[in-house]
Amino acid sequence: MFDSGVCGTLFRQRHFPPGHVVVLFVGLSILYLLVILQMFQTTSKHSIEINRLVREQIQREYRPEKVTNTTPETLPEEAHGGPTQTVSKSTLAPTKVPYYDVTPPNLAKITTLTQDLELLLSEPVINPHNFNYVHNPDDVCKKQKAKLLIVTPSAPANVKKRTQVRKIIHKLLNGTSLYKDVVHLFFLGSPNGRCTSQNASQIIEKEVKKYNDIVQEDFLEFYGNIRYKAVSMLKWASTFCYNASYVLRIDDDVTANLSQAIASLRTFGCYHEDFILGKALEGCKPMRKRHVKYFISKEEYPHSLYPTFALGGLLGYPLSTVRLLYEASLRVKPIWLDDVYITGICRTKLNISLFTQKEFVFDHINDGSLVPLS
Ligand SMILES: *[C@@H]1O[C@H](CO)[C@@H](O)[C@H](O)[C@H]1NC(C)=O
Ligand SMILES: *[C@@H]1O[C@H](CO)[C@@H](O)[C@H](O)[C@H]1NC(C)=O
Ligand SMILES: *[C@@H]1O[C@H](CO)[C@@H](O)[C@H](O)[C@H]1NC(C)=O
Ligand SMILES: *[C@@H]1O[C@H](CO)[C@@H](O)[C@H](O)[C@H]1NC(C)=O
Ligand SMILES: *[C@@H]1O[C@H](CO)[C@@H](O)[C@H](O)[C@H]1NC(C)=O
């Protein structure tokens, strides 16, 4: 994620040529230099222009946005200036249980409250996560008496990936009674119109009817909003699945042995109260070049190092940790990089340990044709 490039230059030795060849050589060199100079003037103008465009695009694309809180008929124009997309009212109508109707149980009931924790929790809420639910299977954990909740962040357009992940997880869960108290859910934002067909909402509607495994909130789905996605999963687990012991997050594009990760999480939980299992990255520096994917400005994050954080692709934690991270996310100054924010900054504020476990070291798959989980 944060590799630095290594540059090498090749030099070749030259022999000094005889007299008339030198004259010809010098003449040609001058001509060549003139041509190069001319080209350079043109291209540098070009590259300044391209840099400006890229910078502007990144600024537009990576700024978090929120869909208007009232039921939107028209989603805001998406980042590349494409056509605005109309979504029928019925598909975006909030479900019967808005966020404020349900209160998670008292924190003191689920974890030990130290003085430091109480101090943090007494700070004012500066980032409320008050999006409406478009779809919310709010009673699945209760019905199944879930002890483990598996969450998969997914983009509305990733219908195929969801099908693949469902297939593998259903097979795993169905294979043995070990997993009868496991619930698996996808977490979606609202289609942004750029990467999704006009039918995205209808397709999601069908998936909901068939599988009832989708939680969808009305923030706009795009890369700059990944923090909202991360917080939405913490919030849902804290609010609608608080009787579970653990939450496992697995992205729809990673390969890992899920049964081993679950076993590792359960074993670890026998000996520790609050913790995060994942693949930790230590000593990472913020990217300050505007055109890179993980660019972050000094205004957003002034320090020269990130705290140790875990990659979001595969994470395991007890429910109490999830709840604490959610509470912290409401109060700690945010940055848009969700992994760094939640498992780095918020975790450090809470004094929760992060462990790299070999079962949580995963690979990404890129072409979508491979089997993601096992
Ligand atoms: C949690 O367990 C309690 C006690 O058994 C029950 O009353 C409550 O409905 C459960 N809630 C959820 C969300 O599972
Ligand atoms: C699990 O297996 C049973 C019997 O083999 C089947 O009826 C059921 O649909 C399966 N459930 C899932 C979620 O795959
Ligand atoms: C929308 O779905 C219908 C069938 O459900 C299909 O015929 C049509 O081509 C789809 N449109 C788009 C833009 O994907
Ligand atoms: C995943 O781990 C389990 C338990 O160790 C093992 O039985 C299974 O074969 C593994 N699956 C793969 C594909 O390696
Ligand atoms: C963090 O945890 C350690 C060990 O549990 C403890 O000694 C320390 O006081 C804690 N610090 C804060 C700020 O909570």
UniProtKB/TrEMBL annotation:
It is an enzyme of class 2 (transferase). The keyword Oxidoreductase does not apply. The keyword Magnesium does not apply. It comes from the Eukaryota. Pfam families: Galactosyl_T. Its EC number is 2.4.1.-. It is found in: Golgi apparatus membrane. Residues 63-88 are annotated as: Disordered. The chain crosses the membrane at residues 21-40. Gene3D superfamilies: 3.90.550.50. Keywords: Glycosyltransferase, Golgi apparatus, Membrane, Signal-anchor, Transferase, Transmembrane, Transmembrane helix. It is a single-pass type II membrane protein. Belongs to the glycosyltransferase 31 family. This is Hexosyltransferase. It comes from Aplysia californica (California sea hare).
